[in-house]
Amino acid sequence: MNPTPQTAPRTRVRDIALLWGLVTALLWLVETVDFLLPADLDRYGIIAWNPERLPHILLAPLLHSGYDHLSANTVPLLVLGALAAWTGLTRFAAATGVIVLISGLGVWFTSPPHTVTVGASGVVFGYFGYLVARGALQRSLRDILIAAAVVVVYGSILWGVLPQQPGISWQAHLFGLLGGLTAAWMLRTPRPPVATT
Questions:
Q1: So where are the chain's domains?
Q2: What pLDDT was estimated at residue 1?
Q3: What is the 3-state secondary structure (H, E, C) of the chain?
Q4: What digits encode the pLDDT tens for the residues 62-78?
């Protein structure tokens, strides 16, 4: 049975809540395993300029340097990720893939050699850029309002794209943001042609 207009938003909220519940549980499970076992999972992060570790750009967002690092990323990841997923999980999955690839490749190419980078902050910056750019490109009232709210609440994170504090990857932030902007442009919905009389 197809959802009615009244039940469709409920189904979407349920799907997004389930998705982010699972993602959050996975992130915290990975960090707990890393904490409890002598696994040293952080070595599977992005190691700059190491060709053998290039595939690790897909794993790095799942890894964190500790619970403080993970805690700092969890809430913005949930909020921005849920907003990014609102227009559909297929488009959201594609946007996430673009963000992870561009952020990871940017870190791999621009970080000092042999530096190990872990964390989901590049994805956080990517969702921020994606939501803001989507509002500018789609120009629907919903997307514009979401973009405005995101800028008001999270706009200060943009300082994170500048080199500031040692040990924090501004490269992940910058290229994550660029990945989000790219994803919004790639996945934009073409506007219908305007007829003139």
A1: 8-186
A2: 43
A3: CCCCCCCHHHHHHHHHHHHHHHHHHHHHHHHHHHHHCCCCHHHHCEECCCHHHHHHHHCHHHCCCCHHHHHHHHHHHHHHHHHHHCCCHHHHHHHHHHHHHHHHHHHHHHCCCCCEECCCHHHHHHHHHHHHHHHHHHCCHHHHHHHHHHHHHHHHHHHHHCCCCCCCCHHHHHHHHHHHHHHHHHCCCCCCCCCCC
A4: 999 999 999 999 999 99
Kindly give, in sequence order, each residue whose CB lies less than 8 Å from that of residue 110, ignoring residues fewer than 6 positions away. 48, 171, 175
pLDDT single digits (tens) 37-49: 888 999 999 999 9
Superfamily of domain 8-186: Rhomboid-like (1.20.1540.10)
Provide the pLDDT for residue 79: 97
Tell me what pLDDT residue 7 has.
55
